[in-house]
Specification:
Radius of gyration: 19 Å
Largest sheet: none
Number of helices: 5
Order of helices and strands: HHHHH
């Protein structure tokens, strides 16, 4: 019975908790980024909590679940690029969720988040593309982000101005 409990903890429960931590950290990060203009003090705290949860999940995933023996340098690298990755994805997610409310802000968040998260993902996972593969890939990502920026800024400029950020509540 004790072995069954240990194996279910290691095989199902612990990875689930880490998985929840990734998404919770991401949710807090994306929410704080898009809401930052409303209350910078409050959402800076939420941002740091979200990034912290995401980084702890990254460390637990690498060290405990994947059983990687990380050096100090690898751990620092993982922490830095996990932070950047969480912020980049948060920029995309928050910008998409609240485009109607903060269209001009979101027009910067979404493309910037694509560039930041893609670059951070490559570095976090030690993906080495080399010049031959890397230049075309980065060029494509940059063209997509710049095109999206141009399109979103035009959409934002032609949208009626939002009355505020209400989450659907009556004003």
């Amino acid at each position: 019975m004790e072995n069954t409990m240990k194996s279910s903890w290691k095989g199902a429960v612990f990875p689930y908790i880490v998985y929840v931590m990734f998404f919770l950290g991401m949710g807090l990060t994306s929410g704080s980024i898009v809401h930052m203009p409303l209350d910078p003090h409050k959402y800076t705290i939420v941002l740091f909590v979200g990034m912290g949860v995401f980084v702890v999940a990254s460390l637990l995933n690498e060290i405990v679940i994947d059983k990687k023996n990380l050096s100090i340098g690898s751990t620092i690298r993982l922490v830095i690029f996990s932070l950047c990755l969480s912020v980049g994805i948060g920029m995309i997610s928050g910008g998409i969720q609240h485009f109607d409310d903060v269209a001009e802000y979101a027009a910067y968040l979404i493309p910037g988040g694509i560039i930041l998260s893609f670059t951070s993902f490559l570095f976090k996972n030690s993906i080495k593309l080399g010049i031959k593969k890397g230049l075309p890939v980065f060029a494509i990502v940059l063209v997509i982000a710049l095109s999206l920026s141009f399109i979103l800024k035009n959409v934002a400029a032609n949208m009626p101005k939002a009355e505020g950020h209400s989450h659907g509540q009556a004003e």
